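Q: Got a minute? One more chain.
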Amino acid sequence: MKLLERLVTQNDNPARVGGAIRYERPTWRVTCVFKRQEICGLVSAEAIYEVAARNEEEARKSVRSFVLRTHPESTIESLQAIRQ
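A: Always. Here it is, folded:
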């Protein structure tokens, strides 16, 4: 237990902020425009996702994977990521 307390309260490591270990990744706001075929014709939709990722490419890849998994009939027109 003493070892755990020392790890959490130690301030000499740059990976620590305010005495706590920093595990957070930056938050990205990813806007995805995708199209899908409906009975009435081609429908375009826009969705905004907030994801935690190390970099822009990881954020875009995560959203791309999620959209294609949840909407397999869709095609992605654009993905735009902005760091929050």
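A: The CA atoms of residues 4 and 18 lie 16 Å apart.
Q: Perfect, thanks.
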